[in-house]
Amino acid sequence: MTDVDVGSGDRLALAVLVQYRMATTEQMHRVIAPGVRSEQTRRRLAKLREEGLIDRITLPRAGRLRVWFPTPYGVQVACEWPELRGRRPSKTVSDPTAARLRVGHTLTVTETALVFLEHARRRGELCRPLDWIPEVYHSIGGGEAVIPDALMYYRRGPEGGEGSMTRAFIEVDRATMGPERLAAKLTSYARLHRYIPAPPGRRRRNIGQIEAQEQEEQWRQRYPLFPRILFVLDGTGPAGVSTRIHALRTVPKDPALALFLHTVPVLAAALADLHARGPSEPVWHPVHDPGSGPGRMVAWSWSPHS
To answer: Taking the complete model, does pTM exceed 0.85, yes or no?
Structure first.
């Protein structure tokens, strides 16, 4: 008799690595099989490597940390599966040097995913491994695009009962860019929020005002509501976190950006606080909070209208 569970476990492991780009052995175990012995995950990863679907690098840290990533062959195989169909293939790290140069940010994004996955498991809510989708491409015209670090689907409330779906764009900042560059991301999201593509074969400047009003923003083709934006801050102490939150709050606001912040919840939190208390707790700083002062902290379900 075929061991179906082994096949499905291998498939999930490869799908996760293709979607997440990179993960350590421990992170892979926490994502795909937290209820079994970690040795089983190590054997599974070794098997996928022998089959040429994934590869690894070893970082010169304590314990010689192993980091796994998909090979081009692994990406090709997994992107044919229904659960990954329609996803843009990753700019895969196809060799150890490329993997090493991207490892810091990518592993932090994976660790952020685990904050939400493990929180959902503890609470009996629904956020499964493939509900975390890194680097989803959103055009804003002129060859430009908004590409969040991840798009997350999280269903709050008990699985099988009443609940609400939360969609969020996740931006992970490891203090590798200046606070002003971080804050500039808000302008890009505001452009995405109002972006209406020109009809095929017609230049935008030739669209009449009435016809333009009949077009809808492109994001509405994907989402019933514009996803909330969650900035997760790491790589700095409390003072650095405060500096970055201040930069987000004080970015110059033209009318379009002001309207966007009044409409879409934008929140920021330290990764350390998410680990310590959980993302559903009041650890988030609203970027725009008309109802209170800058020191207020809220749950991630907060909105500017609440």
So the answer is: yes
